[in-house]
DNA sequence: GCGAGGGCTTGATCTGGATCAAGCGCAGCG
DNA sequence: CGCTGCGCTTGATCCAGATCAAGCCCTCGC
């Protein structure tokens, strides 16, 4: 583990309130590792041995069934994933693969479980983290069930623009095919839909997005804090998406 | 509150391990109320004031956006809902309405939050509950993204049959229109799909379902513990569906 | 007992999005 | 530098599922 990494981890909402002793114990069992791009870190169904903390690089969480596959989220620094499985000591529900070279801290799940039994502050942090994760997935499910493809895209673009500081132009943080899968559609459909959003105040050039008419786009997207977040509690909370991770 | 209700609540996974004193404090602020059928208990966006515990009757959790609406889950006795919003002190992401006459215990969210800061055992129970809820929604989202309508129906029927004790015949626990919405389709589509499942080993007569060829149905549904549950941890864990609730 | 409403089915039609099939263009690599 | 692979687009076609529109039937209330 590198010297600058410890404070970074310590600063995460999940770890910042715990006792110093607990934190040290936790870190003693932890180790860091660097993985190449495109590596399958965990496979759904595997037993949950380690909580993963992404220090560098992006990690995709995805699920597969019957030969099909879909992206559930993308985690970026500094975020954690598969907390829930570790806590439950249950099999992972999702697989994870690196999208690029990634540095990851691995914390043994058993240490985690032992410590929140002893450190109430840490237990409370875990509660908050999980509640945030839960709400993030509920939002995602709401979007899938209540919005059409175009509406999902439109609100995604709007969200990205807001996260980047309300800028009218930004670069997509992930590949389009991944974004398509995350939004529950095919790459072809995303491609066509993006072009059709021309009429709704969006211009796309490669991975660059330019919002030319925010009002028109909003009229289509109808952004809603109960779907698009964030939790008022803090932007760092449960934003589960290409912009930020930390999914359990 | 009725005399038999206290032990029932105490016996829930969420409350069974906490200190007796904590439990008593929690119950002092709580009160029970009976609501008629079809009543909107909470509306999405409202501040989370009370954790709800369903003692009798079914409660539907649903979401709405842009005039559309969908069912997210059904909670039945004895289960709790909107735990996550209470913990976060954030607005509800879902609305709740009674499907029939229902008796509900209301526990002030502030008491809840105060107590898990003091009672680690309770905090741990909350962690487990939330982790289960989280995993339940992830499963639901996986089903929506990875399976077609027919596959979702098929696996739902199989799951119900298993929950009822692997019986070949059972009665649907909820109205079909609600089931359709829960499974992410229209009532018309559900109706037609159910009839078409005739060829896959299912006969439906009103709300009665008869599985005539389990193998054939399984071949279509391809049931998977990573989608259909349950968590190995215990059947009572995160089964979020028409069969059982306790969603945060 | 009868009327009204709502849930369910059924039919006809429409369409959003998937699938299949090329081409294009860029990045990585020999 | 040119080959190769892959991500992206574009076009053509197909299909699952939505929508629209009746009718049926059961339940409930008067």
Task: Tell me briefly what this model is.
Chain A is α+β, with helices and mostly antiparallel strands.
Supply database-style keywords.
homodimer; about 250 residues; alpha+beta; Arc Repressor Mutant, subunit A; four-stranded antiparallel sheet; 10 helices; about 40% helix; elongated; DNA-binding
Structural domain tally of chain A: 2
Percent helix range of chain A: 40-55%
Shape of chain A: elongated
Distance between the termini of chain A: 23 Å
The CATH class of the largest domain in chain A, by name, is: Mainly Beta
| Count of helix runs of chain A | 10
The overall average pLDDT of chain A, rounded, is 92
Q: Nearest-angstrom radius of gyration of chain A?
A: 19 Å
Task: Write the topology of this structure.
The structure is a homodimer of 248-residue chains.
Chain A (H helix, E strand, L loop, with lengths): L4 H6 L9 H10 L1 E5 L4 E3 L7 E7 L2 E7 L2 E8 L3 E3 L1 H6 L6 E4 L3 E7 H10 L1 H27 L2 H15 L5 E3 L4 H7 L4 H10 L5 E4 L2 E4 L2 H8 L3 H4 L20
Antiparallel strand pairs in A: 1-8, 2-7, 3-6, 3-8, 4-5, 4-7, 9-11, 10-11
Helix pairs in contact in A: 4-5, 6-9, 7-8
The structure holds a DNA duplex (30 and 30 nucleotides).
